[in-house]
Amino acid sequence: MLAIVATELLPKASAVLSGWVIGAAFVMGGVLYLAIEAGAQRLAGAKRGGKRMWLIYAAVAIDLLSDGLMIGSGGAVATALALKLAAGQVLADVPEGYAAAASFRANDVPRGKRLLMMASFAIPVLLAATFAHLVLRDANDLWKFGALAVIGGLLSLAAIEDLLGEAHEHGADSKAAAMSFVGGFALFVFVSAGLE
């Protein structure tokens, strides 16, 4: 996610918008992430039994919603940008999908229902991408590129929260984890360069 923000979203926005607008939009994205996360935790807290499973499901669905907003916003700027963002998100979402599937299985969710729940993850992406594209396609540059900066703030905070949570959970630094971060960043840059 950080690679997408650093190599695609913010450079595109900074080519058009002032640093003040980008900074304000980035903060708005962070605030939006915190609001979404609070809603997901409230939703998960309302469920009894399998609470962690529903928290994972809600977190993945909300992440996919933000992915859809990002892809739709990118598509309003340029189709090639939307394709790069979608390719990068596929790479980023594989671990989340695996975690969700493992959680469903660990909670003895029947196979048919698991498949249906996994398929339902396409809904937030498609709805959000369509919404963002339709709203932004004829908008002026302030809104189009401002949306990229907002999504940049949202994704950055999501990535950092995830990294900090993992760090506290495991306690010790891992060279493999550090290299995985660097490798993932480089992989997105390579995918982005290949799609140019």
UniProtKB/TrEMBL annotation:
Ranges that cross the membrane: 15-34, 54-71, 115-136, 142-164, 176-195
Keywords of the record: Membrane, Transmembrane, Transmembrane helix
Protein name: Peptidoglycan-binding protein
Organism the protein comes from: Novilysobacter luteus
